[in-house]
């Protein structure tokens, strides 16, 4: 018997509802923040709307993730093919080295070259999100059963057909796991982009830390965490369908 699932029973659905409600309704929580932080004259962040900050944060994460996915998957595919296997240790070492650089250090290096704003944030985030995608692409393609590849060859498939119809579909769940990890990392790391002039949900956090306003910090951190939960649950739902 095929049971149709009601949308509002999904955790992802409720996470989306809470994120949207807090994004639009945060100013309504001013009495609560004023009660928790009575020493603050301005307990609610008002320099930008939380909707603007959320959309800007999502834009930076989405664009940097697309860049990471494009480069990371391409590198993973190349080094798992016969002509590129010699470069596999080099690629793994380079992307692992990139992950060890703190995002703030990457921004400090990039800003003098391209200036302040969104561009240095995109460069830093796209580099920082490479490692999980490259590793999962390599693992997914390397773990394709030899029997499946042999069966495709036995059916007379060309190398391109073998990749598209056998290797790629079987590796997709593992690759998707790496993309999921990379995007979640980028959601948290994107908050740092506000230190170089990019508007993100990190703006209340940075201004709150500079002005000793913990209410701002809580508001920004809460929305960043909720966005990460929403995206993670959405990926979980997507992976269950693949």
Automatic annotation (TrEMBL):
CC terms in the record's Gene Ontology section: plasma membrane
Predominant localisation class: membrane
Domain ABC transmembrane type-1, residue spans: 54-235
Pfam family, one: BPD_transp_1
Membrane-topology descriptor: Multi-pass membrane protein
Cross-referenced CDD domains: TM_PBP2
Alphabetically ordered keywords of this record: Membrane, Transmembrane, Transmembrane helix, Transport
Keyword Transmembrane helix attributed: yes
Bilayer-spanning residue ranges: 12-34, 54-79, 100-128, 214-235
Subcellular location: Cell membrane
BP GO annotations: glycine betaine transport; transmembrane transport
SUPFAM superfamilies xref list: MetI-like
UniProt cross-references to PANTHER family, sorted A to Z: GLYCINE BETAINE UPTAKE SYSTEM PERMEASE PROTEIN YEHW (PTHR30177:SF32), GLYCINE BETAINE/L-PROLINE TRANSPORT SYSTEM PERMEASE PROTEIN PROW (PTHR30177)
Family (UniProt): Belongs to the binding-protein-dependent transport system permease family.
Name the record gives this protein: Glycine betaine uptake system permease protein YehW
Natural source organism: Ephemeroptericola cinctiostellae
Lineage of producing organism: Bacteria, Pseudomonadati, Pseudomonadota, Betaproteobacteria, Burkholderiales
